[in-house]
Amino acid sequence: MFKKSLIALWVSLFLISCSSNTSKTSGPNLKEGKWEITITMEAKGQMPFKMPPQTFTQCITKEKVIPVSAENETNQNCKFIRNTITGDTVSWTMECKTPDGSVINEGTITYKGDNFEGFSKVKHSSTEFTQKMIGKWVGECK
Asked: Which range marks the domain in which residue 48 is found?
């Protein structure tokens, strides 16, 4: 009886370990490594305007799929409220606390191997920014 229980436990642990390994390799179709991300932003509201494109690089992995500028990545006042992966599409909501109130960023991107496209909306008080994002894989991370 003890032997059967031990075998059943071993089989259960093996199946759990297999399912854990599968979930780590699943996720969006993206090439892990260094990505160049370009964001174009347009403000809506009382004073609409268009900002020049901003480009930055970031290491993106299956565990870290949301493109975030280094400034927001290290900002302790910013946190992800929601992060959903459905197939190759990643959606999120991030909130940053500022002295002037909360800034909410809701976005969605779809990976296509070595590139992605997406958008996000950034809301602060009565101002809303729409960001279009494109990304391309540019090499290995160091």
From this structure: 28-139
What domain count does the chain have? 1
Which residues have a Cβ under 8 Å from the Cβ of 45 and sit 6 or more positions away? Answer: 126, 127, 128
CA distance 91 to 80: 11
The model's pTM: 0.72
In a domain, 61, yes or no: yes
The pair of structure tokens assigned to 14 is 């093996």
Q: Is residue 39 exposed (0-12), middle (13-18) or buried (19+ Cβ within 10 Å)?
A: buried
Q: In whole angstroms, what is the distance from residue 62 CA to residue 110 CA?
A: 13
Element (H, E) at 24: helix 2-25
pLDDT tens profile 9-46 = 232 322 232 333 333 447 899 999 999 999 998 887 65
